[in-house]
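WARN retry 2 of 3 for item q-0093 after timeout on previous attempt; input resubmitted unchanged.
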Amino acid sequence: MTPRPATTTVQQVVRAATQLLGTEGVEGFSMRRLGAAMGVDPMTIYHHVPNKAALFDLVVDELWSELHPQTDGSWRRQVASLAHELRRALLQHPQLVALVATRPVVTPRLLGLVDQTLGRLADQGLPPAAAMPLLDCVVAFTVGKVQGEVRQPTGGSDTTPEQAMANVAALPHLGRAMAEGYDWQPDEQFRLGLEALLTGWPVTPGAAEEVSSESTAES
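OK item q-0093 returned
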């Protein structure tokens, strides 16, 4: 029997999917559960998306479209702003970290956003051939750092913070780091890592290969 015409919108489907991912995670997500959460027949969802993979692409597309990075200033300032905006969004929606890390850039809107970003960076002296790998690295760094901040130990943990600190204090170099003021400060660590990445990025695409060759020869 042909399902009745959909009475929902694709935006409603995407937002409901984002909410369901927040409670069930990627592993517990299904189109049937999404339909139940929306109060519609699961077949209604297929009027908007062909399958779950396409829906996940739209969820990631929606997250990226809601970022508001700086669009003027130097290319380093713009890329840094983009990274901070992405980190902010992922910390608000930790259930989307795995999707952002693994879904390819395929939707027309997201491809358009990438193209616009490349155009702005080119205007500031960073050509697309150098900007694309930089964006890849910055996104990977940002997603990885957020994943480290929000992750839960796989399989759980029976070690208390006090036990962990006692183990660290017994080791000379780790103990020294703690004694000299080391503390887990994710905001500051993210800022420092991003700054190092942007400061060392070559504007000329071939320069990275030259640096890599020199490093290999020295080692």
